[in-house]
């Protein structure tokens, strides 16, 4: 989340898909792999911007806990990778409609105050962000096909003030009680 400031809501990607994405990140973008595990950003960069940094942890938890508790875990299919908006960033997109959009929209209507979004809602897992990829690396990443689904079963809320590393505030399992 370079250049970011505010509170982000991420959906962790675990299981086989998360392990494969982590392996690809480690090979093609070690800095990205060190910064955070595989995830989809639900609030912070697309659709809605980050939650404004003056929100307290308690306010954010109070707004998101009911949404997480009432939202079932999601099993989603990745689309083929592509370069993100004329950059060297390579992502695995997810369908921006359906249950993921519904979760995003519930978060957007939570009563929390959000900064400006830089992009329309474009859910994805990032494979490579920082390096300029050699043509062979780019071809390799664009040829990836991930058959394993993205299993999204919790929200991770993080405070970000780049260039410092993000600090996880708390996690909320989907369909269940919160954890620290």
UniProtKB/TrEMBL annotation:
InterPro entries, per database record: 2H_phosphoesterase_YjcG-like, Cyclic_Pdiesterase
Superkingdom classification of source: Bacteria
Gene3D superfamilies per the UniProt record, alphabetical: Cyclic phosphodiesterase (3.90.1140.10)
Protein name as annotated: 2',5' RNA ligase family
Organism this protein belongs to: Roseisolibacter agri
């Amino acid at each position: 989340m370079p250049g970011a400031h505010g509170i982000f809501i991420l959906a962790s990607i675990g299981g086989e898909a998360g392990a494969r994405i982590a392996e690809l990140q480690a090979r093609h973008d070690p800095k990205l792999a060190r910064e955070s595990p595989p995830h989809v950003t639900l609030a912070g960069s697309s659709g809605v911007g980050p939650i404004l940094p003056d929100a307290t942890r308690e306010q954010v938890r109070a707004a998101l806990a009911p949404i997480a508790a009432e939202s079932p875990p999601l099993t989603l299919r990745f689309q083929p990778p592509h370069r993100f908006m004329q950059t060297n960033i390579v992502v695995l997109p997810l369908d921006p409609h359906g249950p993921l959009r519904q979760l995003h929209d519930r978060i957007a209507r939570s009563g929390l105050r959000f900064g400006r979004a830089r992009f329309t809602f474009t859910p994805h897992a990032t494979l490579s962000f920082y390096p300029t990829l050699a043509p062979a690396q780019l071809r390799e990443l664009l040829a990836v096909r991930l058959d394993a689904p993205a299993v999204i079963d919790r929200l991770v809320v993080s405070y970000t003030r780049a260039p410092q590393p993000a600090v996880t505030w708390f996690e909320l399992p989907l369909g269940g009680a919160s954890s620290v």
